[in-house]
Specification:
By secondary structure, this protein is an alpha+beta fold. It has 10 helices and 11 strands. Strands 1-2-11-10-7-8 form a 6-stranded antiparallel sheet. The protein is elongated, with a radius of gyration of 30 Å. It starts with a helix and ends in a 5-residue tail after the last strand. This is Stage II sporulation protein E (SpoIIE).
Amino acid sequence: MANGGERRRVGPSLPTPVFLGALIAVTVALIALDSFTSTAVRLLPLLVFLPSIAAGLGNVRQTAFASVWVVLVMAGTLGYLRADFEDSLLAAGFTGLFGVAAVISCRYRVHREEEVYRLRSAAAALQRQIVRPLPLRSGDVVVDGLYQPVEEDAMVGGDMYEVAASPHGTRLLIADVQGKGLPAIGTALAVLGAFREAAHREPTLVGVVEAMESAVTRHNLGAGRSGEPERLVTALVLDIRRGPVVEAVNCGHIPPYIIHNGRAYQSSLGEPAVPLGVAALAPGPRAVAWFAFPAGATMLLCTDGVTEARDSAGTFYPLAARLRAWARHPPRRLAETVGADVRSFTGAPLRDDVAILTVTRTRGSS
């Protein structure tokens, strides 16, 4: 629940000087126009709409003040003009009812915005458990980049990543849950929980992947009992130590790209294994591959939101060609450049989550 300080920050609220200045200015303008123009249409009754405007832009206190202000102005002006008493009373009463309705409307609007704020706060806390803010560091590597969920204003998408500094080396995960947004959160939490535990417990990378496979299988069984669809997870799990070679298990994910000495190329990991969640259908156990990651190189990892992005003609995004052109970029700038170029290439809102990670060795690693 939001505390009192958070409640005061919820929803738009006009600064008091701006609110009072606008209220007085509109009132004076309408009275002046009503007094110095000879039109048959009276403009003074338009003041009745001021509380409604305040209800949409300000807080409850400002709306209530505007309502009382309009009633007093209407009553005072009609009294000054010596209008019929019954007409004046009717106008003041009608204005008061409009003011009460505006206050009720404002309270409802603020309440809804408080609910949205609490939901956003919960989503932000959940995001910190699923995708930690970049950069992430271990004794071996620095991981930077960007993460963009496809849903507008969404905090969490179907992509995930994690870095674990284990006694066996730095274990790195990048994965993509089938589906997008909130429906994929349960599977993502199952995968991340299994990885975070197994990365420290299991001495081999295959053991880490088997723990993640078991977690996805159990989650899918529970989802099936509740009528929810089962989900697959493509994942790439790396073991990075203080040497020029990296160990990898590829579960249907995009192999890493290496950028070094002005060159960019995709590492060869052999035939990818099946995604997490369907190991029972595979002909054999998942295999381990090794690839070179020399000192001074940058490794780029991404999800299929990058490689499967298409332009208006249906052409896939040419990531390898783009990376060769940007091979001299520093890691952080490289990820930002790729992300911006994907959006420019598609010429339309992204249709899938995008995660782009750059991995560099820390000083002293070799």
